[in-house]
Amino acid sequence: MKILTQKMMWLGLALVLIVLIVFGVAMMGSVLGSKPKELPVALVVLDQPAELPTGGTISVGEMIREKLLSDPAMPFVWHLVDSEETAREGLDNREYYGVMVIPADLSSGLLSLATPSPIHPNVKIIANEGMNSQASLVVRQAMRQAMQMISEELLQLLLEQIGQQTEQIPVESAAALMTPVTVQEEVVHPPGVNNASGNAPGLLTQIMWIGSLVTGIVLFLASQKAVAAGSRRWTVNVLQAIVGLATACIASGFTVWMASSWYGMELANARETWLFLWLAGSAFFLLQSSLLNWIGFRSMPLLVLLMFFSMPLLNMAPEFLTQTTRDWIYSWTPLRFAAGGLRELMYFGGLDAVSSNAYVLWGVAVGFLLLLLVSGFKVSRATDAPSTPVAGD
């Protein structure tokens, strides 16, 4: 039972609890219990008022607009758009997670249900799956449920109108009234085949981060040995950067080839995916190597924690995250800029669609490249300075 008196055992148990707490916060704290809120979506109301047989007009599109905008349960921020074409441009520019289009003949089509020749109007729901698959699913479900409830209210309204005109309803009209509005769903910018339901950008980013970290550790150890053997540290650091960037090039190309050849991942443009992944891997390597050169292996916990805190966020829409997570992690982690840029490239039109994410990665790469090179001068002065003779020698 002497093991129970050993301080090391109790310190080890305490360390296990600390590790569980830290990684529990990293892997679960930022995502569990997350709820969608303020998802930007567009609403296009084209409906024109229709004349009622009993006099007056009815504008069903305006009624739907008021109900949608006033419903606090909807996790959306509605943007009113004049035309479907403009709304689709917003989808292409990653401004909206979805669009609802109210057709111009909605009111007149609903009134036709009381006639022997009913016409079913179609309300269109367009989901932007390329932005985020989870958010796209929420948009489709919430809009579908909203239209179902609105259809029930429209049914009551139509029955009242028909009751004012006649006591008998034609068979065709009775059948049409069962579904007064037809909901037509459409998905734009869908992920390709074997893209992990749209999560492939996050997976590729994680693979490149780990590969870059292994590269950085290996080259850091090799550079330490080279300096100990007498090589100039600044020269070693330059070669460390060159070899690391070349390795990132090979690793990114191999990752793209492996994903497409081994696992059948559909890529719209494999060459452009490779180029952007090379940029991301280079930025990761230079960041990791700079910290290793300046701090040493004491920087490893920081790099590991950065990876584990970032990984759960890469495939989530920012509107699903808490404000604390968005401000303190999501807003600055370099992994999310890589995943966001890959998402733009893979699902929205190649390198031409990549926005500020590429500029951020370029800034990270250039900034940490300078830090990596400067570390050679700093350490050189500390190690190469001549020793001061002690008086009396």
Please provide a written account of the structure.
The chain is an alpha/beta fold. The protein folds into two domains: 39-188, 3-Layer(aba) Sandwich (abc type-2 transporter like fold); 196-381, no CATH class. The chain is 60% helix and 9% strand. It has 13 helices and seven strands. The strands form two sheets. The chain has a five-stranded mixed beta sheet with strand order 4-1-5-6-7, sandwiched between helices. A two-stranded antiparallel ribbon has the order 2-3. β2 and β3 (57-58) form a beta hairpin. α9 runs antiparallel to α12. The protein is elongated and about 100 Å long. The relative contact order is 0.10. Residues 14-373 form the ABC-2 type transporter transmembrane domain. It is found in: Membrane. GO terms for molecular function: ABC-type transporter activity. This is Phage infection protein. InterPro entries: ABC2_TM, T7SS_ABC-Transporter.
Key terms:
abc type-2 transporter like fold; 60% helix; elongated; alpha/beta; five-stranded mixed sheet; 393 residues; two-stranded antiparallel sheet
Structure at a glance:
By secondary structure, the chain is of the alpha/beta class. The chain has helices at 7-29, 60-70, 84-92, 106-111, 133-165, 171-177, 200-228, 233-261, 270-295, 300-310, 323-330, 334-347, 356-384, and strands spanning 39-45, 50-51, 57-58, 76-81, 98-102, 122-128, 182-188. The chain folds into 2 domains: 39-188, 3-Layer(aba) Sandwich (abc type-2 transporter like fold), CATH 3.40.1710; 196-381, no CATH class.
